[in-house]
Predict the structure.
Amino acid sequence: MLGQLAAPKNLCVLHLSGIGDVCNVVAAVQSIQKQWPHTQITWVCGKVEASLLKGLEKIEIIAFDQSAGLSGYSDFRAHMKGQTFEILLNMQATVRANLVSFFIPAKTKIGFDIKRAKAGQWIFTKYKTQPQPNTHLIDDFMGFTQVLGLTVSEPIWNIPVPESDEQWAHETLFSTNQKPIAVISLASKKSERNWHVEGYAQTADYLDQLGFRVVLCGGSTAMVIQLAEYICRQSEASILNLVDKTSLKQLLAMLKLAHITIAPDTGPAHMSVTVGTPVVGLYAHSNPRKVGPYLYQKYVASCYDEVIEEQKGKPYSQLPWGVRAKGRDLMDRVTVEQVKSQINLVVEDFYSI
């Protein structure tokens, strides 16, 4: 730990990409902000992520254009000229983040411990977080508060949503409907993490039978749009298809009003956590204890444990933490009955429908 006695005048947070990861980082950043309320915080993130983080109280957001190639680095370097930060928290161990960190002038640069400092991050930082075996990603990010000499607290989130987006969400979900809302977030960018049409359609039917109004959300890729269309055709439920029809702020507003979210390993699962909406997470490739919905681990539908033991010959507890399973069809092993059981558990714990 730095053993810092006084709050710095300013600090910079670097985490570029991944909506889910960014949601997890927010908890750590706002914990620091709560304990150092007079420290000016700047966050360097990707352009898409910036649209979600926009409006964070007393935090300057700098969007780095990851699609701009070398000119993106040149533009960022020019933007940083003349600035100096007392502390840089490099919270993303990737080659791109390391290169970006090189152009951030900071007296003290902090990264992950050697084991987690992938892509050579340890070369670009002087101080490291403490090793934390078998932790969730949020706990890894919270390690940065510890190295600063601050208290590691339970995560809290306060991602602002404009009133216009809250109004849009309320009108869209409830103007002609008074049922509780179940949001199904369809797909990750990595197709092997996605569930199948039949599973989603049968889950939508079950949610409808329980009394929920089913809403689909997802991004703008042709794959996700087509997946949503297939689900709507196969399901007997009256589904509201909002795939490719929401901004990130609108999606966050919608998840805030929802009563349950069903999602694979993708951003909206973590967005739901930030607004206190229970999540049934679907996992096969990744250990949900490391990357699953932080507050709702109890409701995960996962085949990860059995798959990783088959592939590695040992239970996950005897393997390096977070090791991923490989295979394009692993999500087929998550059963509809598993998902229904977890939905029932959420309803039992939170609602009387």
User: Anything to note?
Assistant: The mean pLDDT is 94. The chain has two domains: 10-147, 163-350. The first strand starts at residue 10 and ends at 14.
